[in-house]
Amino acid sequence: MAPKTVSIVGSGNWGSAIAKIVGNNVQQRNDVFSTIINMYMYEEMVDGKKLTEIVNMQHENIKYLPGVKLPENVIAVPDILEATTNADILIFVLPHQFVQKICEQLKGKIKSSAIAVSLIKGFAINEKGIQLISHQISEILSIPCCVLSGANLAGEVANEQFCETTIGSKNEDTGELLRQLFETPYFRCAVVQDTDTVEVCGALKNVVAIGAGIVDGMGSGDNTKAAVQRLGLMEMIKFAEIFFPGSKTSTFFESCGIADLVATCHGGRNRLLGENVVKSDKTIHELEKEILKGQSFQGPLVAKEIYGMLKDKDMLSRFPLFVAIHLICDRKMDTKEFISCLRNHPEHM
Ligand SMILES: NC(=O)c1ccc[n+]([C@@H]2O[C@H](COP(=O)([O-])OP(=O)(O)OC[C@H]3O[C@@H](n4cnc5c(N)ncnc54)[C@H](O)[C@@H]3O)[C@@H](O)[C@H]2O)c1
Ligand SMILES: O=P(O)(O)OC[C@H](O)CO
C-alpha cells in the first residue's frame, strides 16, 4: 500500500509539540507514512517576520513552543488548501472556535478517502445544542474523525517527559494506524472505542481546572482542591451519561479522564486562569492576552457553551460546579461564593 500523507491543521503550543512527535515518527515508519508533513499555520508577524518563514528557517516555533526544535520534514504552510492537498490523515489541533471556519474552507477540497483525528478539547454549538468537535469535522468534511486526548501538557511532552494518552477510534485498524503515527517511548497511546467519552472528558476537564485555580487563588489547601476535582469528575460523568448515552465509566480511568483532570488542575493554563480570576478584576479576554500572549484558554468558552445548553434544558441545578465556574468567569458571581457551591453540592445530599 502507498505510504499515507499526513497533514497537521494547527500549529500552536500543542500543535507544535505534536508536530515534533509525528515528524520524527513518519521518518522512522516511512513504509507506512510519507516523510514530508505539511503543518497549516495561521500566519502572523513575529519580530517583523512571517512566523511560517521563521519556522521553516529555524525549525522552531518561537512564539508558541520556544526552545524546542521541530524535525526538518515538518513544513509550515500558511495556505490551508495547500497544506492539506493529498492528505490521507488530517490531524486537527487548533482552538475549537476556529474549527468551523477552517472546515468550511476544506469542504469538497480534500481526498474523499481521508480520515481525520481531532486533538482538540472543546465543544461546538449548533442549532441542536452542543456538538462534539470530531462530529463537527466529520459532518462538514464527510470523512470519519477519531480523537486523541490525554494528560498531555504540551511543554512536558515536547521535552519528552513520559506520559500517556488515549486514542478514540471505533475502527480497530484505524486505531492501530494512529497508534503507529503518535506513539513514542515517552508518549504511550492506548486505543479505546468509546470515542465520544474520550472527547467529552477533554472538553470538560478544562472547566474543572478553572475551579481548581479559583481555590488556589483563594489560598485554600489541597483538600479543597481535591474536592473540586472529585465533584468536577462526578459532574463530568453525569454530563456524559445524560448527553452521550452509552458512555463507559471505564473510559474515565484512561489518561483522557482522571489523569488529564489531575494534570490540568495542577499544571494547566486553565488552572492559571482560575487563580488570576481571583487575584485580579480583569476580564477573561484581558487575562488571556496578558498571560498567554497568543495562546488560548478553552475552559471559559466551554463553560459558557454548556451553561447556555443546560439553561435551555432547565438543568442548571444538576451541574452547580460547572455553572458557578461560568458565572465567576463572567464576573456574575463573587469568587467567595465558590466554597458554598462546593459545600452545598448535590453529591452531598
Ligand atoms: N497546549 C496544551 O498543553 C494542550 C495539550 C493538549 C490539548 N490541547 C488542546 O489542543 C487545542 C489547540 O491548542 P494549542 O495549545 O495548540 O493552541 P494555542 O492555545 O497555542 O492557540 C493558539 C493557536 O491558535 C492560532 N490562531 C489564532 N487565531 C486563529 C484563527 N483565526 N484561525 C486559526 N488559527 C488561529 C494561533 O496561530 C496558534 O497556532 C486546544 O483545543 C487545546 O485545548 C492543548
Ligand atoms: O493548559 P490547558 O489547561 O489548556 O491544558 C492542557 C492540556 O489539555 C493538558 O492535557
UniProtKB/TrEMBL annotation:
| SUPFAM superfamilies linked to this entry | 6-phosphogluconate dehydrogenase C-terminal domain-like, NAD(P)-binding Rossmann-fold domains
Record-listed E.C. numbers: 1.1.1.8
| Source domain of life | Eukaryota
Pathway connected to this protein: Phospholipid metabolism; alpha-glycerophosphate cycle
Keywords tagged on the record = Cytoplasm, NAD, Oxidoreductase
List the catalytic residues.
Answer: K205
Kindly state one GO CC term assigned in the UniProt record: cytosol
What molecular function terms (GO) are annotated for this protein?
Answer: glycerol-3-phosphate dehydrogenase (NAD+) activity; NAD binding; protein homodimerization activity
Q: How would you classify this enzyme at the top EC level?
A: oxidoreductase
- Residues holding substrate: K121, R269, N270
Instruction: Name where it's found.
Output: Cytoplasm
Boundaries of every Glycerol-3-phosphate dehydrogenase NAD-dependent C-terminal domain copy:
194-339
Q: Does the keyword Repeat apply?
A: no
List residues of the Glycerol-3-phosphate dehydrogenase NAD-dependent N-terminal domain: 6-173
What is stated as this protein's family in its record? Belongs to the NAD-dependent glycerol-3-phosphate dehydrogenase family.
Q: What's the name of the protein?
A: Glycerol-3-phosphate dehydrogenase [NAD(+)]
The organism of origin for this protein? Lottia gigantea (Giant owl limpet)
